[in-house]
Specification:
Structural class: mainly alpha
Largest sheet: none
Shape: elongated
Distance between the termini: 39 Å
Strand content: under 5%
Low-confidence stretches: none
Number of helices: 7
Number of domains: 1
Order of helices and strands: HHHHHHH
Helix content: over 70%
Mean pLDDT: 91
Amino acid sequence: MVWLIVDFVMRVTELSFKFSVYLSAAIVVYIIGAVLAHRFFKQNNNGFMTYKQGLVIVLILSLISGLLSGLFNYIYVNFIDPDYIGRMRTDMEAWLSSLPNVTEAQIDKSLEDLSEEKLTSPLQIGKGLMSSAITGFIIGLIVTAFTKHNRPEFE
């Protein structure tokens, strides 16, 4: 839910066009969410959590987040701000044009993926879900390595 608020603010302020800022914010929210979910689980499990449990927690969290984020994105680009994709294309084209040694053909090829038809499709929800699952898995592998706490074998 926190990511939806962050995502909305970034879209309204057009910071979402700055890929590095957008990606950094997403990773920070994912890490904080994973740590808090692990903390909650350990508080309710006598302080213990295996690596497998931690990874499953992050994957479930990622799938829920991906579904909500995909639905939000679909609603946002189709109903709340239909001009968003056009502004994103314009910003991307200006950025690509400012790069040295980038040809018009390369710019056109890059902008093909930012078409209205592709980005307003309900299939984007599924893509968001898959992307979120992969990102969550990678972040889960790392975060869980630091937050796991196995039960002692001889207790």
